[in-house]
Predict the 3D structure of the following.
Amino acid sequence: MASAAAAAAAGEETVRASHILIKHEGSRRKASWKDPDGRVISATTRSDAAARLTELRGQILSGRANFADLAARHSDCSSARRGGDLGTFGRKQMQKPFEDATFALKVGEMSDIVDTDSGVHIILRTA
C-alpha cells in the first residue's frame, strides 16, 4: 500500500477522516484497547453494535455530543486516543467498504453505519 504522502504526490485523491468503531462477535479481531480479552466484544451482536452507533450518531447530529469526545470514550479503535482521527489516506489503504463510504462523503459529512471485517463504524470526513 502506498502512503498518503505518496498518493498525494502522485496526484491521487486523498481524504482525512475520523471514525467510531464498535466491534462485535463477527469482527475479525475480538479485542480492543477497551476490551483486551474480547469478552464484551464476543458477547455483542452486530445488531447491538449498530444500535449503539445509531444512538451515538443521534447525539452528534442533535448537537448533544461532540464526535471526537464520543470516539475517545466509545470507539474500539486505537484511534480513540486521537478522537477517532485516522489521518489522511488514499485509495486502497482501508477496507473497501470503509474507503468507499469515506470518499463518497463531503467534508464535514458523517456516514450512516458502515460494515467492515473490523466491525461497524460511523465515519466523519474531515478533509
In short: The mean pLDDT is 93.
